[in-house]
TrEMBL record:
Keyword field: Membrane, Transmembrane, Transmembrane helix
Membrane topology: Multi-pass membrane protein
Residue ranges annotated for the EamA domain, each copy included: 26-150, 165-297
Chief localization: membrane
UniProt xrefs under SUPFAM superfamilies: Multidrug resistance efflux transporter EmrE (SSF103481)
Similarity comment text for this entry: Belongs to the EamA transporter family.
Compartment(s) where it occurs, according to its Swiss-Prot or TrEMBL record: Membrane
Pfam hit, one: EamA
Annotated Gene Ontology cellular component terms: membrane
Keyword Disulfide bond: no
Protein name in UniProt: Multidrug DMT transporter permease
């Protein structure tokens, strides 16, 4: 009888991750694109990230002092956290911010990183032993077509040069690698300690480069402070924790399919935050993307 509450709690947590987790993650992650673009008006990219990481670490240290979470028990667990931290914080966020600063449009960046499910679908059989059937491939391709339609309906895609596009592709490789690595080798850790280690890795890599190569002073405006607060609390702490938790709880290819929602959601949120109008044709393309994600992630009840 004493085990029942624990089982019930685990079942409730799993149901929440299955139903509520994807919705919360999608909103927080998608809003990060227009909000980050706003913040980059007031600070250089690596400086912006270094401040963000430092603030995140400060918050986590304060919470850890109160909660006293369990730390990784062996060197291997520490290494896993360091690798995931580098892939997500340095490669994904670092290269994304550099790409936006270099001139790529936010919609183009969102589209490129939404290719992640295709890469995961191709690589998952080799790296994590998942079988990707024809139904899921159809869903993934529909999702990609719909996401591309949303972006194309907003107008021609422009990048100042090939450099920003290559930076965005590097960000795509980073987040894809993190999900595959977490699924295959990651171990369940306290979110507080895992996030603290990963943001420390981000700060260790980004801060020296910011000091060495970026010399533009930060403009501490109310808008910049607001963007920092959102990115630290919602993007850095809540969204990343949800992403890793959902990856461990479910099939990595299904979790990755959530990213097909990001370009349409980012387009809607860009309209809300930045006043960018979403054309009528984009709504139809968004419907195709939603259908594709539904097909790719649906699994029959047993």
């Amino acid at each position: 009888m004493a085990q029942a509450p624990h089982v019930d709690t685990n079942a409730r947590n799993e149901r929440w991750l299955t139903v509520g987790g994807p919705v919360v993650f999608l909103l927080l992650w998608s809003a990060g694109f227009p909000i980050a673009k706003t913040g980059l008006r007031y600070a250089s990219p690596l400086t912006f990230l270094s401040i963000r990481f430092a603030l995140s670490i400060g918050v986590l240290l304060a919470v850890c002092a109160i909660r006293r979470p369990q730390w990784p028990r062996d060197a291997r667990a520490w290494l896993h956290l360091v690798v995931v931290g580098f892939l997500v914080q340095v490669m994904y966020f670092g290269l994304s911010y550099l790409s936006m600063t270099a001139g790529i449009a936010t919609s183009v960046l969102a589209l490129i990183v939404s290719l992640q499910p295709i890469l995961v679908g191709v690589l998952a059989p080799t790296f994590v032993g998942e079988r990707i059937g024809a139904r899921r491939w159809i869903g993934l391709l529909l999702g990609l077509a719909g996401a591309a339609g949303v972006i194309a309906a907003r107008g021609p895609l422009h990048a100042e040069s090939l450099g920003p596009v290559l930076l965005a592709v590097g960000a795509l490789i980073g987040i894809t690698g993190a999900m595959l690595y977490e699924k295959r080798l990651g171990t369940a850790q306290d979110p507080l300690t895992s996030n603290l280690v990963q943001y420390s890795v981000g700060l260790i890599f980004c801060a020296p480069m910011a000091l060495g190569f970026e010399h533009t002073p930060v403009q501490w405006t109310p808008t910049f402070i607001a963007t920092l607060a959102y990115l630290v609390i919602c993007n850095s702490l809540i969204a990343i924790t949800l992403l890793l938790a959902m990856t461990r709880a479910g099939k990595v290819s299904q979790v990755a399919s959530l990213f097909f929602f990001v370009p349409p959601a980012a387009a809607v949120l860009s309209w809300f935050f930045l006043g960018e109008v979403l054309p009528t044709a984009a709504w139809w393309a968004m419907g195709v993307a939603v259908l594709g994600v539904a097909i790719a992630t649906w699994s029959p009840r047993k």
